[in-house]
Amino acid sequence: MRRGIPVFLCLMGLLLAPGIVCAKKKVIYPAEMKKHRPDMPFSPGVQVGNILWAAGQTGASIETNEYPADFKEEVHMTFKRVEMILNDAGYTFDDVVEAKVYLTDISTFATMSGIFKEYFKNDPPARTTVGVSTLVGKARIEITVTAAK
User: Fold this and answer.
1) Is 111 exposed, middle or buried (0-12, 13-18, 19+ CB in 10 A)?
2) What is the pLDDT of residue 38?
3) Most-buried pick from 70, 81, 94, 111 (CB within 10 A)?
4) Does the pLDDT value for residue 44 go beyond 90?
């Protein structure tokens, strides 16, 4: 009987997997991003089945590519860019299951975390926060998320 359980689970996995494995990749490229940054060498988001992966976003202005002087403003702008990708794919912050945050100054962790709570009020996602030496341009924060429905 014990051997039958793993075989049964494997067969169930094979029956359920085609919905995920056979799902086509859909690129998510919000119009506002495409308008100002049509030449990005990566997709802002990729959806396969019910899972959405959002590429790392920084707090640079989409229109000017300038970074705010104020760190809090940069964090909010980073979340606004993440939100653009989520919304374009039909997701919200409530659908986010994992977030990865990269900070060039780990002493800004408490500030970032306080703002993070504003966007994830209920049932926050799993989160990893890492201190790094540099990010693209003058970015002090980068956030990437995975969402599922």
Assistant:
1) middle
2) 80
3) 81
4) yes
